[in-house]
From TrEMBL:
<keyword id="KW-0175">Coiled coil</keyword>
<dbReference type="Pfam" id="PF13455">
    <property type="entry name" value="MUG113"/>
</dbReference>
<feature type="coiled-coil region">
    <location>
        <begin position="114"/>
        <end position="191"/>
    </location>
</feature>
<feature type="compositionally biased region" description="Low complexity">
    <location>
        <begin position="329"/>
        <end position="344"/>
    </location>
</feature>
<feature type="region of interest" description="Disordered">
    <location>
        <begin position="311"/>
        <end position="344"/>
    </location>
</feature>
<dbReference type="InterPro" id="IPR018306">
    <property type="entry name" value="Phage_T5_Orf172_DNA-bd"/>
</dbReference>
<dbReference type="Pfam" id="PF13250">
    <property type="entry name" value="SNIPE"/>
</dbReference>
<dbReference type="InterPro" id="IPR025280">
    <property type="entry name" value="SNIPE"/>
</dbReference>
<protein>
    <recommendedName>
        <fullName>Bacteriophage T5 Orf172 DNA-binding domain-containing protein</fullName>
    </recommendedName>
</protein>
<feature type="domain" description="Bacteriophage T5 Orf172 DNA-binding">
    <location>
        <begin position="208"/>
        <end position="291"/>
    </location>
</feature>
Amino acid sequence: MAYKERLNRLQQSIKTMARGDQAVLAVTNWTVNGSSREGAAMVRDFSRLMLRAYNAEADNCVRNVKPHRVAAMVDRLAKVRATIARLGKTMDIQIAGSYHEARVMEIRLTADYLGKVEEEKERVRAERERQREEERARRDFEREKARLAKEQAHYQSALAKLQASGSTAGVEELQQKLEELADAIAGVDARDANVRAGYVYVISNLGAFGPDMVKIGMTRRLEPQDRIRELGDASVPFRFDTHALIFSEDAVGLESRLHAALAEHRVNQVNTQREFFYATPAEVRAVLERIAGQHLLEYREMPEALEWRASGARTSRGNAPDRAVEPSVPAATMPPVAPPAVTA
């Protein structure tokens, strides 16, 4: 990794500066008991002591730095340098500016490196989650195709028996049913083949996150509510409420457009894998109508939050419910628009 290589080179340079007496500045014309050699030894010993104290603090800053604490650590090290300059004023002992800048750069690079490592971990985690979700969707498609194939075989057998008996009653109805099943199987095959097709969902969790936060994601599942139920597992105290389900042949692109439109409202501005946004369902609806349009299956602005309400609608340890969390926008729905048929 480029950051790691830069950090290693910088740390090697810091060691070279310290060993080459380039880390500390001090006067050299001191004498002790009339001996300039003893005076130089005293200055050298004090310089090493001061450098050791400075390096101990610098090392501590590097060990404990986090991306959000860089400024605090840099300021802390600057104060240590100023303290050393004050204590060593008599012999004009101070940490060299170039050495201090190198150690500050070490703090910054370490924070950047840790940030990149965390980003990579999150990327790997997100990719594993995507693969797991894709595998679940694949199993959904296989189960649905198996169910449809079994039903198709049943109607084909019934049709064959009617035709063998010479009876025409019910033949047309069976043939129509077989055509519908063939279309349904073709629809599932098309969904399975198109890795971008799926549902974009808008959900909220009033009891966990309050009225001004939503999550916008996508799933390829045949039944999108399965994914939403999984998100409301033990990691949150209440289940999510669904505000919108949008089927699209390019759900990946639709999700990206929605995220881009709400980018300024993103809760986590560092990790874009976290799909939460500071917005009310009513605010998101306006964006959806502009971007999703006729693809909108349904929209509900008022979250039911049944578990939260049944639990007392509390937003803190107190017993009284917080009335401010009740959405003020009246419930509204749009007429459902059915997605392409994938089942009989």
